[in-house]
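Revision sheet: structure tokens.
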Amino acid sequence: MQGVSRLVIQLLYGSGLRLLECLRLRVKDLDFARYEIFVRDPKGRRDRVTTLPHAVETELRAHLQSARQIHDADVRLGFGSVVLPNALSGKLVNADRDWLWQWVFPATSRYVDVDAGTERRHHLHESAVQRAVHEAAMRSGLTKRVTCHTFRHSFRDIGT
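Predicted:
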């Protein structure tokens, strides 16, 4: 695997994240100083903190620079806003355009949010990563089923 899909899978494997938890990460959820990832609103509805693997730091920082360039270009074109969780859009004015609230893995294209009357960029769709995992498994000749969730189950938190 290569590119963004590879980085996502490395995070699933190294952090124990579910696929959608990873794709829904915001820039503010990454703490490089403490090597932690804050997971908001996961499947069980209880926020948690997990490990940010040292092995992906360089590649993740480079990816964030690319994502920042996409965001800056969107802002210059009059876009660059994301949907904020819960009622934050009313509390934090202009936070929807703030870099810290942007997706770590932005989609490759924008969509029209009919309710808000604006064009936005969502996070990468899970099917893109799922397809990449399936193709990599086929190319490697594996005879067992491999999914994105396989990598979550391969994670072992040393701290527990």
